């Protein structure tokens, strides 16, 4: 099977699981705490089991890097990177911004990404060599030329608080010198919105590979630039990400380097 066919199948698997998530009713008793501010429910876990089960049929030799640990099988060449429900806190609080996020790596390289924003019924996807799409239509990052005219998304760090001062200083600078800042609470949705031109950029640190795999790939296929805070390529496993329209990348990176001392 080629990657385009695989992507079509992942699209329908992802949508099906999204529909399952949408139908679930949860109560306070269903909420488990993994650590202080890390919540999970049976919905996250059941969704992940369904995904692992279906994706195993698509590429039998592939392994998994999945947030809730359903499978720890390591694939020699292919590995799926899965976040069954990105934006769990939103989901629990009834805020309608959360998604299913599926990435695929061949060796260390991203080759496919699918994000399903459940409540808006928006499916974002791309595969190696393709454009980026939302519900069948090509999407692109913004053509904005300056940070002054840019709308920037971020997420607040929930561990590694050591870098919090650097984060807040950058935040304050951007607050004064951009069109505005937004915080949706789902890194995958933030990335999908950079890909389709709703945001000019997204940055966050203290993220896991499953938060960013699909979105980072889709942004790049949509003409965007993705890097870590030094401008390097270590954004998938390196816990720092900038996803941005390439015109404003230098200007943005200069600010990040100033505050984070890179
Ligand atoms: P999640 O909903 O899958 O946990 C928002 O800043 C991003 O960070 C989301 O993608 C969210 O993913 C993740 N996130 C928020 N709190 C987290 C925590 N305590 N541990 C791990 N990831 C978290
Ligand atoms: Ca989580
Ligand atoms: Ca996540
Ligand atoms: Ca999750």
From TrEMBL:
The keyword 4Fe-4S does not apply. It is an enzyme of class 3 (hydrolase). Its cofactor is Mg(2+). It catalyses: a myo-inositol phosphate + H2O = myo-inositol + phosphate. GO terms for molecular function: inositol monophosphate 1-phosphatase activity; metal ion binding. GO terms for biological process: inositol metabolic process; phosphatidylinositol phosphate biosynthetic process; signal transduction. InterPro entries: IMPase, Inositol_monoP_metal-BS, Inositol_monophosphatase-like, Inositol_monophosphatase_CS, Inositol_monophosphatase_SuhB. Its EC number is 3.1.3.25. PROSITE patterns: IMP_1, IMP_2. The keyword Metal-binding applies. Gene3D superfamilies: 3.40.190.80, Fructose-1,6-Bisphosphatase, subunit A, domain 1 (3.30.540.10). Belongs to the inositol monophosphatase superfamily. PANTHER family: INOSITOL MONOPHOSPHATASE (PTHR20854), INOSITOL-1-MONOPHOSPHATASE-RELATED (PTHR20854:SF4). This is Inositol-1-monophosphatase. It comes from Vicingus serpentipes. The lineage of its organism: Bacteria, Pseudomonadati, Bacteroidota, Flavobacteriia, Flavobacteriales.
């Amino acid at each position: 099977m080629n990657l385009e066919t695989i992507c079509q199948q992942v699209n329908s698997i992802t949508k099906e699981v999204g529909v399952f998530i949408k139908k679930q009713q949860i109560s306070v008793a269903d909420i488990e705490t993994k650590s202080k501010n890390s919540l999970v429910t049976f919905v996250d876990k059941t969704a992940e089991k369904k995904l692992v089960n279906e994706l195993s049929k698509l590429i039998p030799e592939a392994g998994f890097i999945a947030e809730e640990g359903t499978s720890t099988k390591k694939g020699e060449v292919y590995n799926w990177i899965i976040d069954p429900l990105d934006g769990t806190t939103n989901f629990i609080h009834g805020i309608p911004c959360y998604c299913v996020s599926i990435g695929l790596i061949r060796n260390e390289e991203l080759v496919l990404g699918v994000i399903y924003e459940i409540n808006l019924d928006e499916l974002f996807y791309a595969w190696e060599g393709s454009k980026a799409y939302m519900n069948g239509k090509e999407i692109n990052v913004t053509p904005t030329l300056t940070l002054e005219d840019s709308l920037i998304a971020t997420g607040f760090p929930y561990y590694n608080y050591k870098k919090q001062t650097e984060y807040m200083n950058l935040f304050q600078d951007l607050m004064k010198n951009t069109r505005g800042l937004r915080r949706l609470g789902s890194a995958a949705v933030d990335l999908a919105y950079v890909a389709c031109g709703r945001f000019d950029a997204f940055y966050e640190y203290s993220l896991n590979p499953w938060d960013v795999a699909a979105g980072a790939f889709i942004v790049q296929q949509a003409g965007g630039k993705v890097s870590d805070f030094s401008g390097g390529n270590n954004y998938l496993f390196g816990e720092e990400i900038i996803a941005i329209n390439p015109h404003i990348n230098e200007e943005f990176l200069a600010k990040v380097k100033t505050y984070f001392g890179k």
